[in-house]
Amino acid sequence: MSNLEAAPDEMVCGADKTHAGIELLVPRNVPLGGPRAMDVRRTLPQKQRSLIGAWCFLDHYGPDPVGESGGIKVPRHPHTGLQTVSWLFTGEIEHRDSAGFHAMVRPGEVNLMTAGRGISHSEFSTPDTTVLHGAQLWVALPDSARHMPPTFAHYRPEPLVGDGFSVSVFLGGLTVLNPRGADLHSHSPVATHTELVGAEILLQPGTSIRLDVKAHHEHGVLLDSGTLSVGVDELPVDHLAYLPPGSQEITLSAGAQPVRALLIGGEPLNEQILMWWNFVGRTHEEVVEYRRQWQAEIGAEPGDIISRRFGDFPEGEPDPLPAPVLPMVRLRPRD
User: Fold this and answer.
1) Are 58 and 261 in contact (CB under 8 A)?
2) Cα–Cα distance measured from residue 41 to residue 58, given in angstroms and rounded to the nearest whole number
3) Nearest to 76, CA basis, from 99, 105, 96
4) Is the link from the previous residue into 45 a cis peptide, with omega within 30 of 0?
5) Ramachandran category for residue 314: left, alpha or beta (phi over 0 → left; psi -120 to 50 → alpha)
6) Distance of CA 330 to CAs 10, 287, 299, Å?
7) Residues 56/50, Cβ–Cβ less than 8 Å
């Protein structure tokens, strides 16, 4: 998914100071396009926290009636230095990219696109989709991997199922501690370039689960629906709870309503990254050059000899998205 803000904020993101206990990240509404566009609720990045592990972007949307909003209509746009992670609860989205991959995003199936040195892709909700509901996330690539060739992966995890719970691990590995028998473990085969975890968690009312996690990882819990306590703290719907490194267990407890939540986490990136629009780089000069190259590619005429960082696209597709205007100042950290 593209960041469709007309004046996106620049952010230099690094490993944030950890806090004792849980930090609550409040969502902000961002429209994807025009006046009838679908709104998303963005919890990463924001002023107080820009990264959870290498996770650098989280948009949560729906349930959205496509007949009213028009759904997702995001034509070709570029990315650098990141991986996009698509996870749906309801609906279907068609993905097409300049590395030659064409796939459908469906509930319970993760689609992970690695931009590496540069890729462009489009996303459109399918004609049969009536309700869209899900999340779009980005993972910042470490410096050792950010110039790799672009690629794509698709995986449908087999849920871990127990008394009142279901856990689908789409990235990394996760263990559910089972007091009534053997612990349950799942590990995704999808390649990442830092230690990461991503999982959808469903809980029936009154159910609690204990998750075995790595003490050097930091984690976030996004509540999609229901009543949920993270440890002893109750989490409001649409909010993201940040849990700093240091814990080897996370306890999630459903209240009177069934719960759907996402767990993300990983080792702190410990690298400073600069995010602007759909680009992740390291310096002002890099991001300016990415924008220049994208604008040159989408404005090129047949036969023009230019460097095509973002690849070729099939004929007959909708016009690509132009990059927003750069701010009139040097891209810099947000205070």
Assistant:
1) no
2) 8
3) 96
4) yes
5) beta
6) 9, 11, 25
7) yes
Residue 67: which pLDDT band, with cuts at 50, 70 and 90?
A: confident
Residue 190 has pLDDT above 90, yes or no: yes
- Residue 47 vs residues 12, 161, 230, 282, 333: alpha-carbon distances, Å: 11, 37, 23, 18, 10
Token readout for 32 is 């994807």
Kindly report the pTM of this predicted structure: 0.91
CA–CA separation, 25 vs 177, rounded Å?
27
Looking at this protein, which amino acid is placed at residue 58? L
Output 121 or 178, whichever has higher pLDDT.
Answer: 121
* Main-chain dihedrals φ then ψ at residue 137, nearest 5 degrees: -130, 155
Q: For the domain covering 11-266, report its CATH number.
A: 2.60.120.10
CB 61 within 8 A of CB 281: no
| Amino acid making up residue 119 | I
**Contact (Cβ atoms closer than 8 angstroms) between residue 205 and residue 254:** yes
Report pLDDT for 16: 42
Supply 209's token pair: 């689960």
Q: What share of the chain is helix, strand, coil (3-state, %, to 5)?
A: 5, 45, 50
Place of tokens 């009154």: 206
The domain limits of the chain are 11-266
